[in-house]
Amino acid sequence: MALKQFFAQTSGVFLEAKKHNMLRVKACNSMLLGFVLFSSTLFSGATARLTIDAADGSLLDTETGAPFVARGMNWGSRLTPGANGTSLYNESDVTTAQKLLPGMNYVRLVLDYYSGGICFTDIYSEAAETTGWISPNWLAYIDNAVRWTAAADVKLTITLRNNIGTASPHGTTTSKIPCDADYISNATARNRWFDTWRFIAKRYLNESNIAWYEPASEPHLIHKAPLANGTWVDCHSMPEVKELFNSVVKVIREVDSDTLIAVAPHGYESCPGLSSLDKLDDDKLVYALNWPCQLAKSPVNYHGTGTCASLGSKSEFSTCIPACAGADADAPEDDNATFTYDRSVVKALLAPALAFTSQHNVPLWIDQAFCPPGSFQNSHAWLADTMSELGGLSKTSFSWWTWKAADEFGDKSSQAILTLRKGASKHTDKQDLAAYVLNEEVYALYKAAFV
After folding, report:
1. Are strands 59-61 and 338-340 parallel, antiparallel or unpaired?
2. Are residues 173 and 94 part of one domain?
3. Which domain covers residue 260, as residue numbers?
4. First and final CA of the chain: distance in angstroms?
5. Same domain for 187 and 250?
6. Is 358 in the same domain as 249?
7. Does 407 have pLDDT greater than 50?
8. Residues 6+ apart with CB under 8 A from 64
9. Domain match, 444 and 336 both
10. Distance (Å, rounded) from C-alpha 270 to C-alpha 321?
11. Higher pLDDT, 229 or 358
12. What is the pLDDT of residues 322-379, one digit of tens each?
């Protein structure tokens, strides 16, 4: 079955018929499409949280005037919560992280949204119009996360991973997302997304520990997808992508004029990286960067040598690494071109983001830094070089992926500080706190960024 058909049959709400210049939604024709959840009354004046120093782009705590640098963890693993919002995480995760990671002051809460039935952890519910299309159990979980972190004086970011809406799918490639299914082409889905952010911004307007909102994690709207006739096309132009992100920022600003918002319309990956194409209109924005230790498809370890061809096509990382800039991964004569993964590569990959934030005096936030030290050699040297290029621990906000995951004991590919103990089952024990133990290899790596 084609993915587009699958979305139509499972979600039943998002596919749009464009002929006759009107919207048509399967199985939901009686619903008012694009309904705006709130009246036209504008909300403003959120509880003072963080602000940006226009002189240098650093973050400041509005209550104390002191600099703020996020040093935190992702709550990235998802488990459908119970009716009271119980899930994989609870209040003890915050306090435990503070004990293990001195200076830990931040949590990034990652939530699946608009997956068309692909993710069983999708927070979206067609029956939840009055709560911003967020299912009651998931809303209780978000409320809990806000409360737990506030009690521990820890800042929180609420993040949506829009599997279809921003071409950020789990378990498949972006080319599997039809161009007309995402938020740019599908007005119905876009308006629901806007409703959700209006609701979130209003619900947590007076919660002082909200660091910023992140409307879209891992956006890939500049991607190729096949048409019905098999022709591959670029789905969208950069002006279209910028317009979408400017629009969702404006939606949040209808409700909340002050809270920071994190974005990276196109330069989320270090290659090509942030550029003038990513600069949006609002002046209260944090710009996000994804930072894995592994380079695209290449198996090369840090301080190791790899082929430029292993990085993927010329449109990917091979164009951003100096030794590979002139090589064509699709050309047989360049198959043997090589590079050494060292600090010079780290410097080259960070350069666009650092140049962008310096030029525009805006904060840089590494929303996902991750590395599996059990399978990636010289991970500590990679981290040390990364921190050095960023100017040390006091400069750039970051959140490590991830705090806890139902990874099996001894899994060398794990990137979680807490994993299941030996003999525990990921199917029956993953919600049991006693089932988790410290992953010593990951902990030894990640804690270096907090000391």
Report:
1. unpaired
2. yes
3. 3-299+342-449
4. 51
5. yes
6. yes
7. yes
8. none
9. no
10. 11
11. 358
12. 888 765 545 544 557 899 999 999 999 999 999 999 999 999 999 999 999 999 999 9
